[in-house]
Structures are given as C-alpha cells and as structure tokens.
Amino acid sequence: xxxxxxxxxxxxxxxxxxxxxxxxxxxxxxxxxxxxxxxxxxxxxxxxxxxxxxxxxxxxxxxxxxxxxxxxxxxxxxxxxxxxxxxxxxxxxxxxxxxxxxxxxxxxxxxxxxxxxxxxxxxxxxxxxxxxxxxxxxxxxxx
Length: 143
Known about the structure:
The protein has helices at residues 5-17, 21-26, 47-60, 126-132; strands at 28-35, 65-74, 77-87, 101-113, 116-123.
C-alpha cells in the first residue's frame, strides 16, 4: 500500500509538535537536506541535525504549535502553508527570551522518497518575526 506523501508530512509535523523525536526521525531519510534562504540559517544535511534543529526551536518556544493550513501534493513534492504560534521563552540564536508570542505563517516544500522526507525547503518572513518578538523595530514613517 502506498502512503500519500501529504500524510507523511502531516505525521512529521504532528510528531514535532508532540516532541516525539523518535517518530519524527523515523519519517526522515538519514541524509535529509533542509534549505532556507533566511539569514543565519545553517543548512541541515542529515536527520540528526534536523531533529536537533527542532529541539532547539522547542527550547526557544516551549509551547510552539505548527498547524497545517493547506497542502498540495504533486509527484514526489508536497507544498504546505503552515501556521506557527509560540511564546519565546528561550534564546533564539543571539536574541534573549522576550516572553512575546510569535504568530506567523510560513511556506515549506517537502520532497518525499520511499515514504520518507528526503529534502525540505523552508521560507518565512524573519523581519516580521523579529518585530513581533520585540527584537527589532522599524524606523518611524516620515511621510
């Protein structure tokens, strides 16, 4: 029986929300790649690094929850718009805990091969996130 690629992605997001790291890892190829053009994002080149990335995210946002808004599957790819909500109670890179909530959407693209996630592309509005968390403010509009 072939499992829908969207279901594999949903299971991975659920396992991450539940911090079920063994389950999450079981849905990944050993050499999974994660890409992002977001400033400061290091590339991820295996399942151990990806799980560690998510563990660090949970340390920064202990109450984080990701909710899939919609997904589209075509061939070996799944595109998803995902809502993220979490309170920054831990360090986020060099940024100290703010106690503020990050409430934002992002886009993720997954390549699924042999019923495991092999590659991920993630893009989100980092500036909006830093503003919400109080780490950055825009200069006043002088119009």
